[in-house]
Amino acid sequence: xxxxxxxxxxxxxxxAEKHRNQRRKDPxxxxxxxxxxxxxxxxxxxxxxxxxxxxxxxLLHDTVEDTDTSIPELEAAFGQTVARIVQEVTDDKALPKQxxxxxxxxxxxxxxxxxxxxxxxxxxxxxxxxxRCTPTGWTEERVQEYFVWAAQVVKGLRGxxxxxxxxxxxxxxxxxVEM
Length: 179
Ligand SMILES: [Mn+2]
Fold this sequence. Notes:
Layout: H1 3-18, H2 34-46, H3 52-60, H4 63-66, H5 71-78, H6 80-88, H7 97-107, H8 113-132, H9 140-155, H10 162-174
Helix pairs in contact: 1-3, 2-3, 2-8, 3-6, 3-8, 5-6, 7-9, 8-9, 8-10, 9-10
Bound molecules: manganese (II) ion (MN).
Residues 35, 61-62, 122 line the site of manganese (II) ion (MN).
Cofactor: Mn(2+)
Family: Belongs to the MESH1 family.
Keywords: Hydrolase, Manganese, Metal-binding
């Protein structure tokens, strides 16, 4: 095996251990790890991204926000660049939810190219998931509001990856949401 494969397996294993007790919010309670793996796969398979640090950051992108993982821990395990990208895509959970969502819109245009890629793929995965099924406890209005908010974030990420942006644009169009 070449070293990139070894590194990616280390990374996906780390994420799987960290998320091992978590489930997605869909009615089936899909294992959470399906999400970061799917986000990394959108980047490689659909976005044509081969930058291993971006693919690693995609696999790890929710570990700091949703598990006990710290940025220094990621830096020690996977290096400065991967840790920095994850930091860029991590919301400050000390802030109220509406403020976190507002800050995502505000910060999106100022993120690094690598972080923008992860954000685009994360949104694409989540919007497809919302089209697939409504999360437990969500109303149709809440789903629509999520699309409206996501469009504002994606607007600030434009000029990063035309393929992913086109696919997002199509999903917004289907919902009648302006970007
Ligand atoms: Mn995510």
